[in-house]
Amino acid sequence: MEEPRKEITEIKRGRKNLVATLVGAVVAINLVVLATSQSDAIIAASDLSRILTVGAAAVISAIVVARQNVTGIFGRAYLALAVGLVLWLAAESTWGYYELVLQIERPFPSIADALWLSAYGPIGFHLFSTARFYGRGVGRYKVAAVIAGMSVFVGLYITGLAGVSQLQGEGAELAIAISIAYPLLDTVLFMPAILIVLNSGKGYLTSIPWIFIGWIALGIADTLLGIAQVQNFDGDLFMINAFYVIAYLAMAAGLWWYNRFFIFDKAKLRKQPAAAG
After folding, report:
1. Quick one: which H or E segment has residue 86?
2. Which domain holds residue 155?
3. 189-224 burial, b for 16+ CB within 10 Å, e for fewer?
4. What is the Cα–Cα distance from 197 to 205, expressed in whole angstroms?
């Protein structure tokens, strides 16, 4: 009885520490970005905040893949997530290269968009694969409500985007299409993410679905970004950047949690008898 209690205590402590660290990191990074909002440093601060946070998630995902291997549903799912995060890291780095090195402010559309969009395939595979496990027991009414809500959102978003668009001239149609593509793809992946969040809180280890919360935050960021893109990035973009930082850090937190508590450590198990002796 003592061992399970010790494990539960460790899980609770780990969850509290992770929440505190996540909140602290989100606040600290966004405060740094906000502090530069009235200067030219805002571009560098924003770009680097996204590159570093998605980079952290990508590194942890690589550790997960290395420790877990790529067999089974979770092995393949987390490999796909790692591929998606690496593509996002490449996209954020490309965007940063355009802005910080080439001095091309807000390069849209660009190669970065191709990298971002290409990540939806592997990340979608991860979400739908893990949803088969974490989404068990979700009621049909919840599924129907989420599908209906997402359908209404898509219709309103596309209509609203057309109404506020300021894009004109060569390339305007492509830019609008890309602006619509992000939230449309997000909506498809919103469904498993929202259902899993609604189905959470049933166990010590799975009470907070970090990665799925991160995906919802990213969808909000993409939606706001789509509106900003068709308005030629007019206005304050701080909130958009903040949601991307939240999304990337939440995914990093989820990967850290998974690596800490869900991967079977054979080396540690082999050491236990020797330690007991």
Report:
1. helix 72-96
2. 20-265
3. bbbbbbbbbbbbeeeeebebbbbbbbbbbbbbbbbb
4. 14
Residue entry with tokens 């259902």:
195
**How many separate domains does the chain show?**
1
Tokens of 260: 């800490």
Q: Which two structure tokens, joined as six digits, stand for 81?
A: 């997530």
In sequence order, which residues have a C-beta less than 8 Å from that of residue 104 and are 6 or more positions away?
98
Cα–Cα distance for residue pair 186/247, rounded to 1 Å:
13
| Segment 217-239, tens digit of pLDDT | 988 888 888 777 666 666 668 89
Give the predicted TM-score (pTM) of the model.
0.84
Q: How far is CA 199 from CA 91, 194, 196, 203, in A?
A: 32, 9, 5, 11
For residue range 9-39, what is the model confidence (pLDDT) as tens digits?
888 888 889 999 999 999 999 999 999 988 8
Q: Residues in the chain with pLDDT < 70?
A: 1-4, 134-140, 142, 160-171, 198-208, 229-236, 265-277
Distance CA(254)–CA(218), nearest Å, equals: 14
Query: In Å, what is the CA distance from 133 to each residue of 14, 73, 136, 247, 253?
Result: 23, 10, 6, 22, 20
